[in-house]
Write a structure and sequence with these properties.
The complex is a heterodimer of chains A (415) and B (246). Chain A is α+β, with helices and mostly antiparallel strands and 415 residues long. Helices cover 48% and strands 18% of the residues of chain A. In chain A, the strands form 5 sheets. In chain A, strands 9-8-6-12 form a 4-stranded mixed β-sheet. In chain A, strand 14 and strand 15 form a beta hairpin. Chain A starts with a strand and ends in a 6-residue tail after the last helix. Chain B has 246 residues and is an alpha/beta fold. Chain B has 12 helices and 7 strands. In chain B, the strands form 2 sheets. Chain B has a 5-stranded parallel β-sheet, with helices on both faces. Chain B has a two-stranded antiparallel sheet with strand order 4-6. The chains are: A alpha+beta (415), B alpha/beta (246). The interface between A and B is large, with 68 and 65 residues.
């Protein structure tokens, strides 16, 4: 027999799970990603490079800017173009905005109702309006950063190869500096709230992240490896899912906030690092539900880092001019940390500047295998010892901890 | 009397549902008139009886999407097709080729156990009461539409190009002044010319202007600027599957 989770709720996109029971024991779990395939790699083939970041943004609304930036980095690397530090800092501001917007959405609107015992944040707001409001304020600030840097809250087209369409003004940077400081107390409170969550799911065999905190030129893992994604990661297609599964050196691994804070704690800003140290032992337990606590610590990081960058740019000033891009035949990979983990865009471009090969791997595709393993372990632990409603609810909470972004995961090309 | 509202997501980027949450405090204003009975991104509640208003986002890209769309239509009095996926098909519907060929290229097999379909807009499958395009749509638009409906007023539709809002904002015309390909003249307005604000060209994400667009003329202008025909053709059909003909 089997138990179906028809559709995960309070997650982005459409997916469900089948828990297979044999002789009174959980035998297997299948995470079924049934959101339709969207074929973005095919969409971009033959397209002129200039238009591609705008198309790639449409892969996901929650992390559109991560897709635009990963796309732009891949294009610039293919052409051997280098942009000055100020342009990279401005891009980072956009990525930080995305972390704030996405983590706040996930923690306050999707996960918090589980902690406080409600079906959704709207119903939770009647008793815990303050918490919901704090979350929405952080989220709105994240969206402000995305609007200024990316051109609009969702699917902006301002992030371009070589620079931007429009550069931020001094007033906008001053507002970023001021507001990030003011919101820090909310983020610190979030760390306290999510530190209390129970342990759910599996422990990852390996963690994988991008070598820089939010963008970089390669991947790192907990075993000290520094590598390009195609060297150590293998993907396979499944008959029951439009998303593929990946293994790192043949083993199940995890990407996301938890791997980031553990692998890159040295890059954290002062208060975030202090909080990391405080919860270090807890985080080292490695259960996937600790991803929520890691995200809360990253809210603090993102606010501190935003303040830092805004100040650097205000002191230093910037040209506001794009680097000229000369199309030529080439190949490039863009590595970005989308809020929910490693994102890879890989292109080969022909001499006219048209895309000849395109491969994209998204965090939820990377996490698909450990998501399945986590549901299996959680189901095994709980089956028979709790009533069916609690059982299913805990499984949903386990999936939610990954902050899955199902829409992103369903269009990955064969390697 | 509270109106019963359902939000149904078919295949898309999640942005159209997310944009409703981006209404922030205005969302709470809406909740004075609406009771949410289905909105899987935001709530674990699912109470289906008959809905007063159903919002459907995304394209029909699987048999499951089609079944869900029919369910939403059959259980609602007023159905809104929200976002360019729902109204015109958007980027995923512009991917050329038959579904089995696409599956083979991407998944390495022609087998189709999960019943994927070539992506199509929902307006192609069911009658809709209101269509609001945009990738994404302007969130204030859906707020206005829902407020109108709550007050028993049929919401108005827009019928002017992006250029109108560009002029009202006094932006410099990027097409004429800088030779940047801009689809503003043939694209339905309502976004407040947001891309031209970034001094970039309109990419046509709200779909073609329904009546008086002149794509043939736009095509000629872009050709004269030196863009090749294939490039222009692809640009025209990106969000609306070749509905613009010249």
């Amino acid at each position: 027999m089997s138990i179906e989770i028809e559709a995960f709720t309070r997650v982005e996109g459409n997916g469900g799970a089948e828990i297979i029971i044999e002789n009174g024991e959980v035998k297997d779990v299948k995470v079924k990603i049934f959101e339709g395939p969207r074929f973005f790699e095919l969409l971009t083939l033959g397209r002129h490079y200039w238009d591609v970041p705008d198309l790639e943004a449409r892969i996901c609304a929650i992390c559109y800017l991560s897709h635009s930036v990963a796309s732009v980095l891949a294009i610039e690397r293919a052409f051997g173009a280098e942009v000055p530090e100020e342009i990279m800092l401005l891009r980072e501001l956009g990525l930080l905005g995305e972390v704030l917007e996405s983590h706040a959405l996930h923690l306050y609107l999707l996960v918090a109702p589980d902690l406080f015992g409600y079906a959704d944040a709207i119903r939770m707001a009647s008793k815990h309006g303050e918490v919901v409001k704090e979350g929405l304020t952080i989220k709105a600030f994240g969206n402000y950063l995305r609007e200024v840097i990316g051109g609009r809250e969702i699917h902006g087209i301002n992030v371009k190869p070589g620079g931007f369409g429009r550069y931020p003004t001094v007033e906008e940077l001053e507002r970023m500096e001021r507001q990030s400081e003011a919101l820090l107390k909310f983020a610190r409170r979030a760390v306290g709230i999510f530190a209390g969550q129970e342990y759910l799911g599996a422990k990852a065999e390996h963690y994988v992240a991008v070598n820089g905190y939010l963008y970089g030129n390669g991947l790192i893992a907990d075993d000290g490896e520094h590598f390009d994604y195609f060297k150590c990661i293998e993907e396979k297609t499944l008959p029951y899912s439009f998303a593929k599964q990946s293994r790192y050196k043949g083993e199940v691994f995890m990407v996301g906030a938890l791997p980031r804070v553990i692998l890159k704690y040295e890059m954290l800003t002062p208060m975030a690092r202090h909080l990391y140290e405080e919860y270090k032992e807890k985080l080292a337990q490695g259960y996937v539900s600790l991803n929520n606590l890691a995200q809360a610590i990253e809210l603090v990081y993102a606010l501190e880092r935003t303040k830092e960058i805004a100040r650097v740019l205000l002191d230093k000033g910037f040209e506001g001019e794009n680097v000229p891009i000369e199309p030529k035949e080439g190949e490039g990979i863009g590595y970005v940390e989308a809020p929910r983990g490693v994102l890879v865009h890989h292109y080969r471009i022909d001499e006219k500047g048209n895309i000849a090969y395109s491969n994209i791997i998204t965090p939820t595709a990377f996490n698909h295998a450990i998501m399945e393993l986590s549901l299996y372990e959680e189901a095994k632990k709980r089956y028979g010892s709790s009533d069916e409603m609690t059982f299913l609810q805990k499984l949903e909470e386990t999936v939610r901890a990954f902050d899955p972004c199902i829409s992103c995961s369903v269009h990955v090309v064969r390697l | 009397m509270m109106l019963k509202l359902g939000v149904f997501e078919l295949t898309d980027c999640g942005g159209c549902a997310l944009n409703i949450l981006f209404l922030y405090e205005k969302l709470f204003d809406l909740l004075e008139f609406y009771e949410i009975k289905e909105f899987h991104m935001a709530s674990s509640i699912k109470e289906h009886d008959t809905l007063d208003v159903a919002i459907v986002t995304g394209t029909v890209s699987t048999q499951r999407d089609l079944n869900l769309l029919h369910y939403a239509r059959n259980h609602s009095n007023y159905l809104i097709a929200l976002g360019t996926c729902a109204t015109h098909g958007d980027v995923q519907a512009s991917v050329e080729g038959k579904i089995r060929e696409k599956l083979e290229k991407v998944y390495g097999t022609r087998a189709n156990p999960m019943k994927a379909l070539d992506s199509t807009p929902i307006v192609q499958h069911v009658a809709v009461d209101y269509a609001l395009p945009g990738c994404p749509y302007d969130k204030d638009e859906i707020y206005q539409v829902l407020m109108n409906l709550a007050k028993g007023v049929e919401p108005p539709t827009k019928d002017y190009p992006v250029c109108v809002e560009c002029k009202l904002n006094e932006y410099e015309c990027v097409l004429v002044k800088r030779g940047i390909p801009c689809l503003g003249p043939i694209t339905l307005g309502g976004c407040n010319a947001v891309c031209i604000k970034s001094q970039l060209g309109c990419i046509g994400c709200r779909g073609p202007l329904p009546k008086e667009a002149n794509p043939a003329s736009e095509f000629e202008i872009l050709k004269e600027l030196g863009y090749d025909e294939e490039y222009i053709r692809r640009k025209f059909k990106t969000f609306a599957r070749g509905e613009l003909r010249w």
